[in-house]
Amino acid sequence: MTKIYGVEIHESKDLGYNMRFLRKELATRLGFWGHFERGVQSIAKSMEIRRVPLLIKAFYFILLIPRYITFQFTRKKLAQTIADAQDALIAHYKLPETKVKQFRVECGEERDFYQREIDLINAELIVLNEKYEGPNLGDKTRSEITELIKDYQMNLDQKLRKFSFYKSCEARLAGIEEQIKLRGTLQDSKQKLMLLQDDESDSSRLTAIKKEFELYDYYGGLLEDISMNLKKVSADKSEKMREAELAEMLSRIRISGE
Length: 258
Description:
Number of domains: 2
Largest sheet: 2 strands, antiparallel
Strand order of the largest sheet: 1-2
Number of helices: 9
Number of strands: 2
Oligomer: single chain
């Protein structure tokens, strides 16, 4: 769970979605009308009614006029808070571990989708097999059921391949996410050590900065490769991708040196 200025963002959504969500949430929480609506809801709850009468709303607004006037003088502050929150969100999305987490959440959602599909197919296969074993079944009907079972089984095999891919992909991405966090922690420790070393040369600092840039370049290439492969699997609507092709994609979802 990630929060930006107290707002929990949707990890599986893109930057544009969360930017709009963040602005709306902060405006509601910090703005006057958000405060007014929460107060009206509190009145409705205390009175045990669904809708607060307009007259009571008007009276409540009159009570809040001093707050409304104060808000008019602090609108710039609210706008600055929202702008700062948006900058923080952009910075968060640029982190390699954030992108990996997005991919991991996406894989988890796809895994759940295929699990539901598999459960539906298995339920249908149980019904068809029961019908196949039924008494007084004609040859034509038995043949039709056999074909249906064959088609469902073929579809099941395709779904199982995708399910297995997304499940393994999710696990690999979780591992990568932890490794990136660990490397980030180690890098922070090295930087702190450099600051404590009085005799450290400029060349040492430049080497450390260069290594950091190289690491981010590597992450960029890795993330681009992961993104491309996930899009390729997602685009396979007919589910014709072979197991070997999916396995080859999985083998590339790793940090070098594992």
